[in-house]
Write a structure and sequence with these properties.
The chain is about 80% helix and about 0% strand. The protein contains 16 helices and no strands.
Length: about 450
């Protein structure tokens, strides 16, 4: 009990934990695809790991830009659920799955055929480039599966089901590790084997999750056929989130481009640091997933007071999660460097970059929570404009690191400035009432709810 007589653990905390804890492990499992590849490929050699770093950044950019398929779908489905319209929730969600499949098919054609010129843009050495092209070309065939996973996971989260994506993610990652070990070292396919194992695991997960959604749609008499008008509306609804994500991915990609101009040891160390930070980001984002689902449900039901209350509670969760993550990374940085590379030069650079990344985590905890809350509220337009501003703040710093040759640790310090800028824009928005809009999203106007701001 607190001094005021209120329990420290409230019903809001229980609800946040119910959604965030399974989401945490599911989100943590997602980057394990990349972490497993990094660990396995890392012991093939530094050029192979550096090639993976370049190709993985391209793949993560593609999938990252399509994250609106998960985030937008979660918010939309949750609003329908709050308004007691389950059939409508599934109908809008299935349109997202069809959209993901179509976008993924196009992406496969583009990146499988254009792998060599795309990797060439990074201007790295020929040896690293060959490994990067191989990994990207094979991995491109898993893109439709990845986008389907995003959409189906978004549907289930919107329905407040976070356990099913967790189970599927864990099984897929275990399969991925086994497949990669067999194909890379057993069959001797090298970097190509790592990519192929991941593609097989991704398609398995996509098929299972799609089956769950199909069964739910049939139970509630919701159509499974592709409806062009509905798919187009889903795409339009995702445009602001796409722009928001584009600005963030552009910042991350700029970091990779700057890192690629450094020695091979720094490129490999950047991949290690980026993999660890991505893992932490997915973990911290678990509370944001709860924020998307709960905010959408509360505002769909017209409960502005509830939306505001759980937001304040989730910010506290995010802050403390960031502090814990910072302490963990700082303490484990030497071990992490050894785990991913046998090259002493790579290890030395990695430790310094990881320590800088650790300092960023408390800010990241606040950023991810408020980002999730505003996504759940359908406030994509503001997030898009805020993303443009923060990109403009980060780009000169990253380019300055390249210009003066400051090194990898300073590049990650510039990333820290990006996160601080994002936090400022999100905190200012949360303190206003402009995002507290009730009702179901207007189908004809992406991101415009039927209700009015409270």
């Amino acid at each position: 009990m607190t001094r005021r007589g209120r329990p420290r653990w409230s019903s809001d905390d229980a609800e946040i934990a119910r959604l965030a804890v399974p989401a945490f492990f599911a989100l943590l499992a997602e980057p394990m695809f990349l972490l497993a590849d990094t660990a396995i490929v890392g012991y093939l050699g530094t050029p192979e790991l550096a090639g993976l770093a370049i190709a993985a950044s391209v793949l993560q950019t593609i999938v990252g830009l399509a994250v609106f398929l998960a985030y937008g779908t979660t918010a939309t489905v949750a609003r329908h659920l709050g308004a007691d319209d389950l059939a409508g929730a599934l109908r809008s969600g299935v349109s997202g799955v069809w959209l993901g499949l179509g976008l993924g098919a196009v992406a496969t054609l583009v990146f499988a055929a254009g792998a060599e010129p795309i990797i060439g843009w990074f201007g790295t050495s020929r040896e690293i480039e060959e490994h990067a092209v191989t990994y990207l070309r094979v991995s491109a065939f898993g893109l439709p599966a990845m986008l389907m996973i995003l959409a189906t996971t978004g549907i289930l989260r919107g329905l407040q089901d976070v356990r099913t994506p967790l189970v599927v993610a864990v099984v897929a990652n275990l399969a991925n590790i086994v497949l990669n070990l067999v194909l890379v070292y057993g069959v001797g396919l090298g970097v190509a084997g790592s990519a192929l194992g991941t593609v097989i695991a991704q398609w398995g997960a996509a098929i299972v999750l799609s089956g769950v959604v199909v069964r739910a749609a049939r139970q509630h008499d919701s159509s499974l056929r592709p409806a062009p008008a509905e798919i187009l509306r889903t795409a339009r609804t995702g445009v602001p989130l796409f722009v928001r994500t584009l600005t963030l991915r552009a910042a991350l990609l700029l970091g990779v481009v700057v890192a690629a101009t450094m020695p091979a040891a720094s490129v490999a160390a950047h991949q290690i640091t980026f993999s660890v930070v991505s893992t932490l980001a997915f973990g911290l984002d678990a509370i944001a997933i709860a924020g998307q689902a709960m905010t959408g449900r509360y505002l769909g039901a017209g409960d502005v007071v509830g939306a505001r209350r759980v937001t304040h509670r989730m910010v506290k969760w995010g802050t403390w999660s960031g502090v814990i993550a910072a302490a963990g990374v700082a303490a484990a940085s030497p071990w992490l460097a050894h785990a991913f590379s046998g090259d002493s030069a790579v290890r030395d650079v990695s430790v310094a970059a990881l320590l800088v990344a650790a300092l960023i985590q408390p800010v990241s905890g606040i950023v991810f929570v408020l980002d999730g809350v505003l996504i759940g509220a359908g406030d994509g337009r503001y997030l898009a404009y805020a993303g443009l501003l923060t990109l403009l703040a980060y780009a000169p710093l990253a380019l300055l690191v390249w210009w003066v040759g400051a090194g990898l640790a300073w590049l990650w310090a510039a990333y820290g400035a990006l996160m601080v800028a994002r936090m400022l824009t999100l905190v200012l928005r949360e303190r206003s009432n402009a995002w507290l809009v009730t009702g179901i999203l207007r189908p004809a106007h992406a991101g415009e709810p039927l209700g009015e701001a409270q």
